[in-house]
Amino acid sequence: MPLTAAAADARVTAHPAGHPADAGALRRQDPELAEVLAGEARRQAEGLQLSAAENFVSPAVLAALGSALANKYAEGYPGARHHGGCALADTAERIATDRATALFGAAHANVQPHSGSAAVLAAYAALLRPGDTVLALALTRGGHLTHGSPANFSGRWFHFVPYGPDPATGLIDCDRVRALARAHRPKAIVCGSISYPRHLDYPAFRAIADETGAFLVADAAHPIGLVAGGVAPSPVPYADVVCATTHKVLRGPRGGMLLCGTELAARVDRAVFPFTQGGAQMHTIAAKAVAFGEAATRAYAGYARRVVANARTLAAALADRGLAVVTGGTDTHLVTADPAPLGPDGREARIRLAAAGIVLDTCALPAGPGRGLRLGTAAVTTQGMGEPEMERIAGLLTRALDPAADETVSTRTRAAVRELTARFPPYQGVDQGP
Ligand SMILES: Cc1ncc(COP(=O)(O)O)c(C=O)c1O
After folding, report:
1. What are the residues facing 136 on neighbouring strands?
2. Is 52:248 a contact under the CB 8 Å cutoff?
3. Domain 298-422 class, CATH top level
4. 68-295: what fold?
5. 222 Cα nearest atom in ligand 1
6. Mean per-residue pLDDT over the chain, rounded
7. How far, in Å, is the centroid of ligand 1 from the Cα of 219?
8. Is 144 annotated as a binding residue?
9. Separation of alpha carbons 342 and 349, rounded Å
10. CB neighbours of 411 closer than 8 A, spacing ≥ 6?
11. Which of 40, 64, 244, 316 has the fewest CB atoms within 10 Å, i.e. is most exposed?
C-alpha cells in the first residue's frame, strides 16, 4: 500500500533501530517497495535464471552492499581523498585491490569502475585519443556495445574496425585478425565478447598487437570469474589492460574492475578518477573485496569447475535435442545456440521460454542476420544444480520451444520449472563460498 508523504517522512526522519540493511525496517517504512523487492526475490527463486551475465551473490556480499559504507563519500584513492573520514574506506579499498592483484596475479588493480562499461571507457581513456582506430569483435557477431556501437561513446569517439568469427565454425580466426591489424594499424585491439563460448587465444592476440604496434585491451567481463577459479586462461600476462565486471561468474556485486602492469597504473587510475568518474562507491568496493576473498577459496575453484561442466552438459543436451550449438560446444559458462532448427528464432524463443519461467537472453550468431539464444550456468550452479539438472533443463527448454506446444504444455512446463527450482533455493543450504 502506498505511503502518504507525511507518514513516509515521519518514518525516515528518525531511523528505526536495528541493522542498516534490516529488511523488516524496509517493510515497516515502505511496504510498497518492500513488496517489489520480495516479488523480485520470488521471481529469481522460482524461475530458471540462465542469463549468462547473472548470478546469486553470497549473503556476505549482500551484507557489504547494505553496509554503512553506502553512506560514505570518497573521491580519490586511498591516502589521497577529497573527503574527510575516509580511513576505513581506504582500508576497505586497499583490501579490495590487494585481493584483486593476488587473485589475478596483476601488478595493479583499480576496483572503482561503477560497471563493466565504465571500466572499458576508462581503458580507452588511458590509452587512446578521440579518432584513433580500434580493432574489435563486430557487434553483430558478439562484440559488446563498448566495442564500437554507434549508440555508445565508443562508436562515436573512435574509429572501430570489426573482425568476425569464421561464419562456418563460429571460431575467431587470428589470421584474419592479423590481416586486419596489418591493413588498418589500430592503436588498440580489443579481445572479448558477450557471447563467445570458447577460450580466447591471448598469446596470439598479444603477438598481433606487438607486430602492429597496438595496445591489447582484454574485455574479460565474462571469463574473469573462470580465470579466478583457475578454469580459463588468464589475459593478465598478455593484455596491456584487462577490463572486467565483478558480477557474472565472479559472483560479486554489480561493478567493474581494471587490471594492468605498473607502467600503466597511474594512467589507468587517472582515467577512472577524475577523468570518467567521480566518487567511488565504497559499499560496492567493500562487496567486491568480499567476493575476491570468496573467489580465492578452494570452494570457489570447485564451483568454477562445476559451472563449466554444467555448461558442457547443457550444450551437448541442447545439441542432442536439435538446437544448433555455436562452435559445437563450450569451454566456459556460456552456451550460444540457434533454436531455428526447432522452429522459432531467438527472439520468439526468448518470449516462449520466459512464459515457461526460463530466463535467458538472445544474442548474435556467427553468420546471418538471425538472433540466437545465450545461456549461462553461473546462477543455476550456485543454486547447487548439477549435470542431471542440465539434462532436465534442456528437456524443459525444448518442450517449451516445440511449435506444437499449446497453453497446457506451457503451463505444465512452468510447473515443472517451479518444481525443479524449489529443490534448489538460491539462499538456503547452498554452498555460497566460505
Ligand atoms: C564483454 C562485456 N563488456 C562490457 C560489459 C559491460 O558491463 P556493464 O553492463 O556492467 O556495463 C559486459 C556486460 O555484460 C560484457 O559482457
Report:
1. 162
2. yes
3. alpha beta
4. Aspartate Aminotransferase; domain 2 (3.40.640)
5. 16
6. 94
7. 8
8. yes
9. 10
10. none
11. 40
Catalytic residue list contains 245: yes
Q: In this predicted model, what pLDDT tens digit does every residue of 156-204 receive, in sequence order?
A: 999 999 999 999 999 999 999 999 999 999 999 999 999 999 999 999 9
CA of 224 to the centre of ligand 1 (A): 12
Contact 259, 104 (CB under 8 A): yes
Check the annotation: does 184 bind a ligand: no
Taking the CA of residue 193 as reference, the ligand 1 atom at the shortest distance is 1
Among 55, 117, 254, name the best residue to mutate to test ligand 1's pocket (greatest count of ligand atoms within 8 A of Cβ): 117
Residues of the chain with CATH 3.90.1150.10: 298-422
Report the nearest-CA residue for atom 9 of ligand 1.
116
Q: Which of 54, 219, 331, 338 is catalytic?
A: 219
Q: What is the pLDDT of residue 432?
A: 36
Residue ranges matching CATH 3.40.640.10 in the chain? 68-295
The predicted-structure confidence for 102-112, as pLDDT tens digits, reads as follows: 999 999 999 99
Interatomic CA distance for residues 428 and 97, integer angstroms: 30
